Amino acid sequence: MHRTSRAxxxxxxxxxxxxxxxxxxxxxxxxxxxxxxxxxxxxxxARQLQPDLILMDINISGLDGYExxxxxxxxxxxxxxxxxxxxxxxxxxxxxxxxxxxxxxxIPKPIDVDRFPQQVEAFLEGLRERIxxxxxxxxxxxxxxxxxxxxxEEKIHELEKxxxxxxxxxxxxxxxxxxxxxxxxxxxxxxxxxxxxxLSMPDVPGDPEAEGSPRxxxxxxxxxxxxxxxxxxxxxxxxxxxxxxxxxxMGPVFLHSLIQSVVRNIRNLGPERQLTxxxxxxxTLPMITGDSQRLxxxxxxxxxxxxxxxxxxxxxxITGRVVERTVHLSVRDTGIxxxxxxxxxxxxxxxxxxxxxxxxxxxxxxxGGGLGLGLSLARGIIEAHKGRIWIESEGRDEVRLPGTTVxxxxxxxxx
Length: 415
Hints:
Strand content: 15-25%
Radius of gyration: 32 Å
Helix content: 40-55%
Strand order of the largest sheet: 2-1-3-4-5
Oligomer: single chain
Structural class: alpha/beta
Number of domains: 3
Largest sheet: 5 strands, parallel
Distance between the termini: 86 Å
Order of helices and strands: EHEHEHEHEHHHEHEEHEEHEE
CATH topology of the largest domain: Heat Shock Protein 90
CATH architecture of the largest domain: 2-Layer Sandwich
């Protein structure tokens, strides 16, 4: 057994049959062989494995073997690892191109299974192939550089084409959501309106609290329609923001009364949660200019999110102050907190941190469900008012309860 027989070898090959053949031949001789099936996987595997030798198929998909080799040679921790081309590219100049790209040797396919382990052993023990002629080396280097530029140009065109197609599909999706939202609003308005008319009729029997009575059933229809209308509004508004089509009806906004209204609305949504709301500095906040209905939506989603992730017995503290022509609102809870990796991601639309298998629709229930649109909508509305929103939290801990603070900045009117 040679001293290199337990060497770690990374074989980059996208053809399963070739990969199995080489792996079996070399493992029969005692080598430790790992397989990477594409260029990106090869780069990651090489960083993690730190192999003693890399066998490189040239004609792999994505990044080809030339490009992967050139990239490996640029990595400080990998630049001295021997790389040997094992390839069916056997035309005139293929060997020289592999060496120019950074390979230390060249073994043509199909491999000779009897000689192959000895060939690998030789490269592990220091064999290196070279292009002897300086002029020939310079000529191939120019050709290789030109080829890389052509490949780069080709990839850029492919990316531009793919990006344009994604933009087209994204616009189609956004337009569909906006149109569907408007179409859904019409029947929802009719259901809600007629249900309210029926509830106003004194001859409808029963009591709203008497389960199963006609008046109770109508009341349930109204509540469900209101909830469905809110879901449709949230979806529509998120996509209007993304399409830069959200319209604001600007006017005077008094944040103190707006926040009080938000808290009252949330408290009335369902079974009462045992939470304490505290307020500081809101009464002295100056008037701002904005869309009061949109800001109500944004603040509702922020506060309801704090309610959702704060267990009973906790506190939600809402404070306000003026800092350099800007109103600074903060909503701090004593809830379970949020992982640092999720602090920015939760502003993405449809982001749901909780397990969706545990989803339920009560918005104020502890860790209750949702579509993952609330904070995305809040950010869009705040930014449409030239403001800013961000989150601070030490992390998520359902025992220690580190809490979360949401900060909102809104500009004051120009003097």
